[in-house]
Amino acid sequence: MNIFHGLLVLPLGFALGIFYFSCLWLTVKRLPRSQHPILLIIGSGVARLGIALLGFYLIAAQQWQFLLIALLGFLLARSLLIARWRPQTRLTDMVWED
């Protein structure tokens, strides 16, 4: 396994993760305004999953180690987006119990 190719695969997995979870976030935000929420959920889910699986398939077609590195990038994107989109709690909003 070439180190250069391995380092190139990590950002590809990261980009797939950013795409997947950003589209998921947009889908969830659009649900209250949607006239057909079931179609939105199913259509978005199939599209996101299809593109992500195709990306992983193309990455893993070379070596299985590349798939693991890409999955690491995918999970890294997930962790970053969770931290970014998590609601911030202010100290004044906290309830103190005695």
Automatic annotation (TrEMBL):
Pfam family name, one: AtpR
Alphabetized InterPro entries for the sequence: AtpR-like (IPR017581)
Top-level taxon of origin: Bacteria
Keywords: Membrane, Transmembrane, Transmembrane helix
Residues spanning the membrane: 6-26, 38-60, 66-85
Protein name from the UniProt record: ATP synthase subunit I
Organism: Fischerella thermalis CCMEE 5330
